[in-house]
């Protein structure tokens, strides 16, 4: 066999092995996401889908129930956004490592807190214990748009070093609320 053909086949084999690895990771991510739903929720969803296929009249009733449920969820989301001040625009998750003793995932969140835009990226290490799962945040990276205040920049830097995601969300909420008040006050005097 010619050496060039052999290398071409080797390259193709490696590319296929990499594609298989990526597809396996995607499948495992989908499997893990499906475990977030309880058996009761899955059975309820299956019964709902079966009801739609049994007849046009039943399907319309199920469709109207689904629309009502969707409207209710949208109202709940709107309430939570107004209540907390956070509006998340995107979220992505990628599993980097999965073993029986630990799972490492990279998360990326984008959103706004009042009028301040932010993007947070971090790794989440989950280690299941006998009764619960312990989680550790690492490699925290925070990007905020339009930060004029050097104290906020220092706070973001120290939060990234500590990896304290909860402190970031609590503090940015308080800062964003007062930022809005300051903007309104300065507009009043202009």
From TrEMBL:
It comes from the Eukaryota. Residues 6-83 form a coiled coil. InterPro entries: CENP-P. One of its GO terms (biological process) is CENP-A containing chromatin assembly. It holds the Pfam family CENP-P. One of its GO terms (cellular component) is chromosome, centromeric region. The keyword Coiled coil applies. Keywords: Coiled coil. This is CENPP protein. It comes from Sylvia atricapilla (blackcap).
